[in-house]
């Protein structure tokens, strides 16, 4: 505008009202109270058709969980704006043309029966997991008329595994040896530490061999005709399993300073595969001068062949006469399927099976360099069993060791067979797996061998690897220590599941020990690391002490832990006049010819 300066314009604007909407003092929303709000309120919501807020508050109060907005100022004031119904909706009704007769039980398209909730049939329940549950829905059918719930339970009246675990029988096993008051615990090692050990060794060297071997009967490799299986026979043969310190050959080698550590294959395999064990066992360690002997007691459990030791639902012990209610297992005292009875049965089966599958012929047998060191012809009445003993040496030294640390082990072979291509003799280890009852408690979900062994051999062997991991690992380790060419595994089953006195041979399979160890994920280097660790513990305890010492390595019966005890030298001598026995005959009982 002409004639008006910029200063006059600014002064005029400062005197006028500010720019913006017109300010009015009239109250257009009179009578409406001020509603405070909280940060948890949802803005812009016209209506809540789901009643989420009300049900959420009720649910939170019911289960004891505080509702967040109830503790915030201003929460809950939305009730001031609740809509008042203008009309009475009670006059409205829903037209339903369905029949009024309600059925409490019906059949759907799939033929399943409908049940309500978890309670009685046809009784409605509130607050359960779903108002209705269709039989067969979310389940897998096994067999005829039997359902298994996907959550691990058995339908139609059966017990769900994993439900109420606190109510299951307690598996409190007894120790293989009684811990006496005079024993001093020197070391406690859990399996997690043992599994991390590792020591690489060579394949070993042969020092000497004793005994003889019969040739294996190849007719057992053929699948038997159904209904015409061979019956397991009972043969009276003299077999020996002498402990380490009582072996005359090992005693002579110790005098000749052939090695520092001495053991037998059954004792050494138990120590090397200790991390797979579940049942209790013990090894006596005798320190004489600078020599260490891994021994066993007379009534030891190492010689017994366990059954389904590693199964998730292993066989249960029989109920004690005065056991409390929580310790009742439901197994009768005279049951043949207890762990002890099954171990005795499996031990006899292994002894008889190894004798039966060879062709006894004095003209066709393989003689070792020396005769059996434990057999005395003038005292024995039974003929010798087919058995060869090979004494082999392994180097357990480390790069930091000043002196060599060698181990001599007595290994065993059961039979010999001709190679089809080269015609050379191949050494065999013969063992037997046994089936007691695939439907009984403790079977570990094993298949029926009579119907599945021929068609599903892989599944049968895989199940045995899972249920008998420790036993198969020990057999494989013994075969590798003996440098055997093959392992022959027999499958022996009871003639009747209710009797442990008669058995039949259902088949035999052959494996190479190294390949079988790979299938089982068996690490020999880990086993040698365990042996070296135990030996170092014993040597470290006796370096500052003079004289002979004796230790006992015990596997805890209920925990994956091994403990090393320092015991007096006279321990166990009052029981068997020394550790072990010079001759231990395996008595074959039970199976009739």
Number of helices: 12
Largest sheet: 11 strands, mixed
Number of strands: 20
Gap between N and C termini, in Å?
134 Å
Rg measurement, Å: 39 Å
Structural class: alpha+beta
Q: Helicity range of the residues? A: 10-25%
Name the overall outline: globular
Query: Mean pLDDT score, rounded?
Result: 77
List the uncertain runs: 62-80, 100-163, 577-593
Strand content: 15-25%
Keywords summarizing the entry:
disordered C terminus, alpha+beta, eleven-stranded mixed β-sheet, five-stranded mixed β-sheet, 593 residues, single chain
Question: Can you put this structure into words, describing what you see?
Answer:
Strands 5, 6, 8, 9, 10, 11, 12, 13, 14, 19 and 20 form an eleven-stranded mixed β-sheet that branches. The protein has helices spanning 6-15, 52-62, 191-194, 248-255, 265-272, 339-356, 449-452, 457-467, 469-481, 513-519, 524-542, 573-576, and strands spanning 114-116, 132-134, 139-141, 147-149, 184-190, 205-216, 230-231, 261-264, 282-288, 291-295, 358-359, 365-367, 387-395, 406-413, 415-418, 425-435, 486-494, 503-511, 549-555, 561-567. It is 20% helix and 20% strand. It is globular, with a radius of gyration of 39 Å. Helix 9 (469-481) runs antiparallel to helix 10. The chain is of the alpha+beta class and 593 residues long. A hairpin with an 8-residue loop joins strand 17 (486-494) and strand 18 (503-511). It has a domain at 184-576. It is built from twelve helices and 20 strands.
């Amino acid at each position: 505008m002409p004639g008006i300066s910029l200063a006059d314009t600014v002064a005029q604007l400062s005197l006028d009202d500010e720019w913006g909407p017109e300010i009015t003092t009239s109250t257009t929303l009179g009578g409406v109270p001020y509603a405070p709000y909280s940060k948890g309120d949802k803005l812009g919501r016209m209506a809540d058709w789901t009643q989420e807020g009300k049900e959420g508050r009720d649910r939170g109060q019911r289960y004891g969980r505080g509702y967040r907005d109830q503790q915030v100022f201003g929460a809950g004031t939305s009730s001031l704006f609740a809509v008042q119904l203008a009309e009475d909706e009670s006059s409205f009704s829903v037209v339903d043309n369905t029949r009024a007769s309600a059925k409490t039980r019906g059949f759907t398209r799939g033929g399943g029966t409908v049940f309500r909730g978890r309670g009685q049939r046809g009784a409605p329940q509130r607050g359960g997991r779903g108002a209705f549950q269709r039989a067969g829905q979310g389940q897998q059918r096994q067999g005829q008329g039997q359902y298994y719930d996907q959550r691990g339970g058995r339908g139609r009246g059966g017990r769900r595994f994993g439900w109420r675990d606190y109510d299951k029988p307690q598996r409190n096993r007894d120790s293989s040896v009684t811990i006496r008051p005079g024993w001093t615990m020197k070391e406690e090692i859990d399996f997690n530490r043992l599994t991390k050990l590792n020591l690489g060794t060579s394949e070993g060297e042969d020092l000497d061999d004793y005994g003889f071997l019969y040739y294996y009967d190849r007719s057992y490799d053929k699948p038997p005709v159904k209904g015409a299986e061979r019956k397991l026979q009972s043969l009276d043969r003299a077999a020996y399993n002498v402990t380490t310190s009582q072996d005359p050959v090992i005693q002579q080698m110790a005098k000749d300073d052939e090695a520092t550590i001495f053991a037998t294959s059954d004792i050494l395999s138990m120590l090397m595969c200790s991390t797979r064990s579940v049942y209790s066992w013990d090894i006596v360690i005798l320190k004489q001068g600078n020599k260490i002997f891994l021994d066993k007691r007379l009534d030891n459990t190492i010689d017994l062949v366990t059954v389904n030791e590693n199964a998730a639902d292993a066989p249960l012990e029989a109920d004690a006469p005065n056991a409390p209610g929580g310790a009742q297992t439901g197994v009768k005292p005279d049951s043949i399927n207890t762990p002890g009875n099954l171990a005795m049965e499996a031990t006899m089966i292994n002894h008889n099976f190894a004798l039966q599958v060879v062709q006894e012929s004095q003209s066709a047998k393989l003689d070792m360099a020396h005769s059996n060191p434990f057999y005395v012809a003038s005292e024995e009445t039974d003929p010798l069993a087919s058995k060869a003993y090979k004494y082999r040496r392994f180097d357990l030294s480390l790069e930091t060791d000043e002196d060599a640390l060698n181990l001599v082990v007595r290994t065993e072979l059961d039979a010999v067979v001709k190679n089809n291509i080269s015609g050379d003799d191949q050494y065999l280890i013969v063992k037997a797996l046994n089936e007691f009852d695939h439907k009984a408690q403790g079977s570990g979900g094993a298949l029926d061998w009579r119907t599945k062994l021929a068609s599903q051999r892989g599944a049968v062997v895989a199940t045995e690897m899972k249920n008998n991991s420790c036993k198969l690992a020990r057999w494989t380790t013994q075969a590798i220590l003996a440098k055997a060419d093959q392992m022959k595994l027999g499958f022996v089953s009871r003639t009747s599941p209710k009797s442990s006195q008669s058995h039949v041979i259902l088949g035999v399979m052959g494996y190479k020990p190294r390949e079988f160890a790979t299938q089982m994920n068996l690490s020999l280097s880990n086993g040698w690391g365990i042996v070296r660790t135990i030996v170092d513990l014993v040597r470290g305890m006796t370096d500052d002490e003079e004289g002979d010492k004796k230790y006992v390595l015990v596997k805890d019966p209920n925990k994956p832990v091994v403990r090393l005890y320092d015991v007096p030298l006279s321990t166990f001598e009052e029981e068997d006049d020394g550790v072990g026995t010079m001759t231990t005959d395996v008595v074959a009982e039970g199976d009739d010819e």
